[in-house]
Amino acid sequence: MKLKITSVLLLLVHIAAAQDTAFGRKMIDTLTSPYFWGRGYTKNGMAKAAQFLSGQFQSYGLAPIDGKDFMQPFSYPVNTFPGKMEVAINGLRLIPGRDFIVGPDSRGVKGNGKLIQKDSVTFIEPVNRIVVVLEDKLTWSAEQKVTDFTLISLDKKLQKTIPATIRVDIENQLVNDFKTGNICGIVKGTSKPDSVIVYTAHYDHLGGMGSDTYFPGANDNASGVTQVLTLAKYYAVHPQPYSMAFILFAGEEAGLLGSKYFTEHPLIPLKNIRFLVNLDLEGTGIDGITVVNATVYPTEFKLLKQINEKNKYLAKVNSRGKAANSDHYLFTEKGVPAFYMYTLGGIKAYHDVYDISATLPMNEYENEFNLLLKFNDGLMGKVVD
Question: Residue 234 and residue 197: Cα distance in Å, rounded?
Answer without folding.
Answer: 14
